[in-house]
Write a structure and sequence with these properties.
heterodimer; A: 500 residues; mainly alpha; two-stranded antiparallel ribbon; 21 helices; 75% helix; B: 172 residues; 2 domains; 2 strands; flat
Chain lengths: 500, 172
């Protein structure tokens, strides 16, 4: 306990410098600014804003990125409430009751409740990360290559099961991501693999290029195709702060949402996406009058929004302690960290404690910023929502182009991104959801390295993955969730959860 | 006779164009990967070679593609919807033009001088903007200039990224 306080003190010492507070503020502001645009989810937002952190020192850059991440998350909720367009899967639930509240002239209260609930959830999740960070890092040191490999297999299995749409297609995307990750120079022999003899490919496919192509460009193409019916709320925003009655109704859902979201977020393999759905279902079950849900019940905003934010934050735990990103957004954070020369994993905490604890402290500051920025600026967000898409996407495009160019100062990267944009568009057309591909791509290199190491140690015996208890246990969990997800009765339920 | 039975009686036919195309696409990608990786040594389990994983992943991709294609004969799914080539051409074309002009390009007989953001920025906005159905040219031109100025100020001056603005005109 005293250790944790000392760590947090160190963290706040770093995060509370004037420069870093300014960066957290700027990150939250631009994150919300871009995240609020309809049709731009958190992945696209972060991919687009990556380059603005390039000129900073690693600590500052990570603090700003974390700010962008929270901003993007919250911006998505704002769009969900005001326009009824969810920026990503987790905001779907918020549209159900949030948009109804907005139609009834209670948009302000919905936004305020979402912000306050998220802030509370963020505070709790920050403490959880601080408390679990050190012990989990110690656990990670027990992990050999076999355990790491099995953990990643399990994470990918979770990602398959929790992806939207067909399991088979999600599986395809993961494998495609893994396949793409093998392009480039082989780590051990230095041989070029599948590069078409093209020098820019010898370092492998650049992460930023893939992410911006598939999530920036392809998303623009998808949106251009569906002429939007943007249903911006015309009713008054109304007062922002919930009154005593609203608070009384929201407290329990916020607490439950935080617990549910925070727990699910820790799971390797996108558990965070389940949080809002689970919280909404729980609130509906517990409610005295379930018929109010879907018609503007404040519990339906308070619970899922808290779960969303708690999960968004505890998702950092597998990344920071084990170096394994649990979802596509965290995969982006890995990419961003690597660009700044930090390899996420257990060694970050011991070698670079300022960075580790500074970032955790800045999570809390980021949440506070959101509260400070979002509520007074609601009017601005509403104006922004009225910008027509015909102007929005060229702006997105020029940002992406400058961003990709700046990663390596390589013009050819921009052309590559366009190619991946086309690739992503084809995938979308064929009904694939590209998020798991990004996760597979990021984990691919690490998986190959660990697999090779493990097999060298075991002298070529695959049994090592089953015989070692931790590794065997992780694989068993992976098999069990796959089997459960494929059972007909459960897969029907799964469809219901994701379509509801 | 229930609907299911009627369905089954109709035998095998494509019930989901989208899934069939998706399956074939996966198989195609896997074949490309296998051809590219054909010369890479597999190695042994004890000492895995550079070709082992690419080939293994490609084979799994192909297998999944076959499954997907087969399932399209059995389960109903989406049809392939129309492609908006205009979006593809203008949006992606705009990005390529940006890449070609920002720092110049030398590709055999084609030589493009280093034009910088002052030219590349408006070009990408203008070209991409043409993809929208409800485009307004005058508005787009003004917007292109405003966005370029804003990006130059933000990225070049506020963030200090090394982007050439207009080497031929301003020397920066």
């Amino acid at each position: 306990m005293s250790e944790m306080i000392a760590h947090l003190q160190l963290g706040f010492g770093v995060a509370l410098s004037l420069q870093n507070i300014a960066l957290a503020f700027a990150g939250c502001l631009v994150g919300t600014l871009i995240g609020v645009l309809p049709g731009v989810g958190p992945i696209a937002t972060i991919a687009m804003l990556l380059p603005i952190t390039f000129g900073l020192d690693p600590v500052g850059a990570l603090i700003m990125l974390a700010g962008i991440y929270y901003g993007a998350q919250y911006g998505g909720s704002t769009t969900a409430i005001l326009v009824n367009i969810p920026g990503e899967a987790t905001a779907v639930v918020t549209t159900l009751d949030g948009h109804q509240m907005a139609k009834q002239g209670r948009a302000g209260v919905a936004l305020g409740t979402a912000a306050l609930g998220s802030f509370f959830a963020g505070c709790v999740a920050t403490l959880v990360i601080a408390a679990l960070g050190a012990p989990l890092t110690k656990l990670a040191l027990l992990f050999g290559p076999a355990e790491y490999f099995s953990l990643m297999v399990m994470g990918l299995c979770f990602a398959v099961v929790l992806a939207r749409g067909s399991i088979l297609k999600a599986f395809c995307m993961i494998m495609l991501g893994l396949l793409l990750s093998t392009v480039g120079t082989d780590l051990e022999t230095g041989q070029e693999r599948m590069t078409f003899g093209f020098p820019p490919l010898s370092d492998g496919i650049d992460f930023a290029v893939l992410a911006m192509g598939v999530f920036g460009f392809a998303e623009v193409l998808r949106n251009l195709e569906n002429p939007e019916t943007r249903d911006v709320v015309r009713a008054k925003i109304g007062r922002l702060l919930p009154d005593w009655n609203d608070i009384k109704q929201s407290i329990a859902p916020v607490l439950r949402g935080t617990a549910i979201g925070g727990t699910l977020g820790i799971l390797p393999g996108n558990g965070a996406v389940l949080g809002p759905f689970a919280s909404y279902t729980v609130e509906k079950k517990l409610a005295k009058d379930p018929s109010r849900f879907g018609r503007g019940a404040i519990e339906g905003v308070a619970g899922p929004e808290s779960a969303n934010n708690a999960g968004a934050q505890t998702a950092f735990i597998p990344l920071l302690t084990l170096g394994i990103p649990p979802n596509a957004v965290m995969a982006l954070m890995v990419g961003a960290m690597t660009i700044h020369g930090i390899i996420p994993g257990p060694q970050v905490m011991t070698k670079n404690p300022e960075l580790f604890w500074g970032m955790i402290a800045s999570m809390w500051i980021g949440n506070l910023m959101l509260l400070i920025i979002n509520l007074p600026l609601v009017g601005l967000w509403v104006k922004l929502l009225q910008v027509p898409y015909r102007l929005m996407f060229p702006a997105i495009l020029i940002f992406c182009c400058i961003g990709i160019y700046s990663v390596n100062n390589q013009p050819v990267d921009v052309a590559f991104t366009a190619l991946f944009g086309l690739f992503g568009y084809i995938l979308i057309k064929l009904g694939f959801e590209p998020a798991p591909m990004l996760l597979g791509f990021v984990l691919g290199k690490l998986m190959e390295e660990k697999l090779r190491q493990a097999l060298i140690i075991s002298r070529g015996s695959f049994m090592t993955f089953i015989e070692r208890p931790i590794s065997g246990g992780l694989l068993a969990v992976a098999v069990i969730i796959l089997v459960i997800a494929l059972l007909p009765s459960i897969s029907k339920k799964r469809d219901e959860v994701f379509t509801e | 006779m229930s609907l299911n039975k009627i369905e089954r009686a109709q035998g095998l036919r494509v019930r989901s164009q989208q899934d069939l195309a998706a399956g074939l696409f996966m198989i195609l990608l896997a074949i490309v990967a296998l051809v590219l990786a054909r010369d890479l040594p597999m190695g042994s389990l004890r000492q895995i070679g550079p070709g082992m994983l690419p080939k293994a992943f490609a084979v799994i991709c192909a297998g999944l593609g076959v499954l997907l294609a087969l399932s399209s004969l059995r389960y109903h799914g989406e049809k392939l919807s129309g492609w908006s080539w205009r979006g593809v051409i203008f949006v992606l074309g705009g990005a390529v033009v940006f890449g070609l002009t920002i720092r110049g390009f030398d590709l055999g007989p084609i030589k493009i001088p280093q034009l910088g953001l002052v030219v590349a920025g408006p070009l990408v906005v203008l070209i991409a903007g043409l993809a929208a159905d409800d485009r307004k040219i005058k508005e787009l031109v003004i917007f292109a200039l405003v966005m370029t100025t804003f990006c130059a100020l933000l990225f070049k001056y506020a963030l200090g990224l090394p982007i050439p603005l207009a080497p031929w005109l301003l020397g920066i």
